[in-house]
Each structure stands twice: as structure tokens, then as C-alpha cells.
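Still learning folds. Look over my entry:

…
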Amino acid sequence: MAKEDKAKIKMTVIHFETESDNATLQENIRAITQTLTRALASPQRVAYSSVQLPSANGVDTNPNIGVDDEPHVLDAEVTAPGSTSPSPKKRGGARTSRTPQPIELDLTSGDMPLKGFIEQKKPDGDIKRYLAIAYWLKKYRNINEVNMDHAYTCYRHLGWQVPADASRPLRAMKSTRYGWMTAGSTRGAYVINHIGENQVEQMGNE
């Protein structure tokens, strides 16, 4: 059998009564009554502004957040601590070099001028033309080291179109693919070797 739940309520009532005509005593009792009335009155509720607190997983738990209160995310790449940010890839660009300049060369005197020599050898393409020019300058003008200025001057003399990259044929002949030239004493200078000379001597006999 269930026990009967008994509850007791106590209420204390304070009652002041006086039959005295003493004004001071009556004023004191009135002051005590007002004090007790204020003390027994229900306390006023104090409104506190809501504080937005993140939950354990970082999600906002405040249901009253407005659209304007949403955080703004910057469109930027963030690197985690301890990791290295990837370096931007270098974009390959066209090789840039200085513009070739004409130089003083004697291309017409002697028993074998440059134009007559080229007509005999009939070099085909810029690489073989550069090679024939280097051979002629070495044999008929005692110029062992040539650069793009030598080739440019000879091209202009012969009426040929100068390559956009005037030093490219010289660099190509120094590569292992051809091996017809070696590096000179200064940057951009090249020397025709015996393999290159043999190539020129075979030109025109084909």
C-alpha cells in the first residue's frame, strides 16, 4: 500500500496593532510594515543578453543568430600548422636574349668571298648555314670564335631571314645531338671543332 504523501505548509503572519496615540510610535510601526512588505514581495526578473557559445564540435548553438551575424569566410588558401604551402609553379616562357648587332666584317675580298663559298656548299637550314659561316670565318678570316653577331652580319649580307632567336643554331650545334661546336672563351661565343669542319667539307658533294 502506497504511503500517503503528507506536506506541511507554514505561513507566518505578522500583525501590528497599537492603541496608543503616540505619533512617533505609529510612524515607526508604519516604517517597519513597509520594509517587510518590500522584502516579502516577489523579486523582479533581470533580463540578460544571450551570449553565443560554440558547442563542442564548433557549431553555433545560439538559435537566435541572424543572417547579418554569420561569420564571413575569406576566399583564401589556409595552410595547416607544420605543413609547407605549395610553391607556385613556374610557367615556362620564351627564351629571351639580346638583339644581335651588325659588326665590321670583310665578306667580299680575297679568293673566296663569303657569297661564293655559300653558293658552293649550299647549306640547308639555319644550323648548317651557321656552321658554314663559322667555317668560312675561321678559314678565310682567321676568326675562331663566333657569336650571333657574326651570323647576323653574314645573314644580312647574303639576304637571308635572320632567325627569331639568333643564338639558337649555335646552342644547338654545341649540344650532344650535333657536337659540331664547343664553347668559346666568352659567353655566347662558340668554336667550330673538327667534327663540324668535316660536315662543311662534305657539303656540296652530296
Helices lie at 23-40, 114-121, 126-141, 148-158, 168-174, 194-201. The chain has a mean pLDDT of 76. DSSP finds six helices and three strands in the chain.
